[in-house]
Design a protein that fits this description.
It is a single chain. With about 450 residues, this protein is of the alpha+beta class. The chain has 3 domains: about 90 residues, no CATH class; about 90 residues, Pdz3 Domain; about 220 residues, 2-enoyl-CoA Hydratase, Chain A, domain 1. It is built from 13 helices and 19 strands. The protein has a 6-stranded mixed sheet, with helices on both faces. β17 and β18 form a beta hairpin. α1 packs across α2. The longest helix is centred in the N-terminal third of the chain and has 31 residues.
């Protein structure tokens, strides 16, 4: 009898202890549930999770086990999925949102999360080839996605898409106000398939439907020609720094050399940057020796990325570099190296001012994070972040200049080099002509 009473007493103590233990873990849920019966359901639903945390606390002797960051996230995720009244989204969507929130909390516009489609697009741009229509798109202050320019030899150019065209629909689905990433995703597709774009074009009374056959687009990031045949002034414009950039710059320089080039205008206007190592490659074609850029990681000493002598496979030409507020990142590494080493003259407007380096870290599900991991400085160790680089000769374009240049681009889509209205390019040609007249000439390294 005494033994049975003892066993009953032990069982009752265990039950009371469990109830107290469970109540301690769920008190917040139950008290919040007084005015919201749904919370009681949540409490019951989350019981296995509470028990798991409690057992972990007892076994490991860690009463703060429930507050560990990963477990707090898992608990919040499972609670939302079990109890949220509205549509919560998939585990992947909620996790992506959590990562985006983490990135945003750092207050750095360049540190960001890349969903699989965004990461894939970035890889395509860096590799220089993708499937699509071959048009550079941007978003205006009204949230409208518009055509910056069709790429050379692209489906968009063959379909007569024009600079300034606003995309209203993609395959009859309205996209005005839709995020540009989503619009690009809708336009992309399999090669040799059709996409219909409804276009709002200035000067037309109603929208225009343009049918385009998607295909592989080899991104030509370089445009070149002899802009002053009389004085043998060559011109190369580079759109971005991807894996094809230095190869295409090299081909263009060799072609212009074969035409007798005596001086070079290198156009980096509107170039948003790209890969750090490619900026080192391109800048090495103009700088004699020494650092191209200094890079400083957190807690480390400055490290120099020096000139690659193998890039000196053509003469050292008198050089003018064109820059503007759209010249950023790798463009500023290149133009900063040219300015600090006196390898050439900068003409145009102050550059964007991005002196930060991002490292792309792939995640297991083909998404990625871009995290700012370093600060870079010009060869003279100037910090250009949020400051930009001032040109040696300032030439600012007016709104009227821009309007005339846009009209020229629309009317001459196959010839993007505007010597008629582009005052910055006109100034570069005039400066180069003067340098050549004063005796400047190509020299060996």
């Amino acid at each position: 009898m005494l033994l049975r009473k003892a066993i009953i007493r032990i069982v009752m103590l265990l039950i009371v202890g469990f109830v107290a233990f469970f109540g301690g873990f769920t008190y917040h849920d139950v008290t919040n549930g007084v005015s919201r019966p749904q919370s009681l359901f949540t409490t019951i639903t989350m019981l296995p999770h509470h028990i798991k945390l409690g057992v972990g606390a007892i076994v490991h002797g860690d009463q703060d086990n429930a507050s560990k960051p990963f477990e707090s996230y898992a608990y919040t995720l499972s609670t939302v999925q079990a109890a949220y009244y509205g549509k919560a989204g998939s585990t992947r969507e909620l996790t992506y949102s959590a990562i985006r929130g983490m990135m945003a909390s750092l207050g750095d516009r360049y540190t960001r999360f890349l969903a699989p489609t965004e990461y894939s697009k970035m890889q395509e741009e860096n590799q220089g080839e993708f499937v699509g229509i071959g048009a550079q798109l941007d978003e205006n202050d009204k949230g409208q996605v518009f055509v910056v320019k069709p790429l050379p030899n692209s489906p968009a150019l063959r379909a007569h898409l024009l600079t300034g065209d606003i995309i209203a629909k993609v395959n009859d689905k309205a996209v005005l106000g839709t995020d540009i990433t989503k619009v690009v995703q809708m336009i992309r597709g399999e090669p040799r398939t059709k996409v219909d774009l409804t276009i709002i074009r200035k000067g037309l009374p109603k929208p225009l439907v343009v049918s385009i056959i998607r295909n592989y687009v080899h991104q030509e990031v370089v445009v070149s020609r002899m802009v002053d045949p009389q004085h043998k002034v060559g011109y190369i414009a580079l759109a971005q720094f991807n894996e094809e950039s230095d190869k295409q710059v090299n081909v263009a320089m060799n072609e212009l050399r074969d035409q007798g080039m005596r001086g070079l205008i290198f156009d980096l206007r509107g170039n948003p940057g790209g890969l750090l190592n490619i900026a080192q490659d391109v800048a090495s074609r103009f700088v004699t020796s020494g650092p191209i850029v200094w890079v400083k990681e957190r807690g480390a000493q400055m490290e120099s990325f020096n000139v690659e002598q193998s890039k000196h496979n053509h003469p050292r030409y008198p050089l003018v570099v064109l820059v503007n507020s759209g010249s950023a990142s790798a463009s500023e590494i290149t133009s900063g190296a040219v300015k600090d080493t006196h390898a050439g003259i900068l003409i145009g407007e102050r550059t964007f001012g991005k002196g930060l380096v991002q490292t792309i870290i792939p995640l297991p599900d083909r998404s990625a994070v871009a995290i700012t991991t370093a600060h870079y400085y010009t060869p003279a160790k100037n910090d250009i972040n949020h400051k930009g680089i001032d040109p040696d000769i300032s030439v600012k374009l007016t709104d009227d200049d821009q309007r005339k240049m846009n009209d020229y681009s629309n009317n001459n889509p196959a010839d993007p080099i505007d010597l008629k209205y582009d005052r910055q390019l006109q100034k570069a040609v005039a400066v180069m002509d003067d340098k050549l007249a004063d005796g400047a000439h190509p020299q060996p390294w």
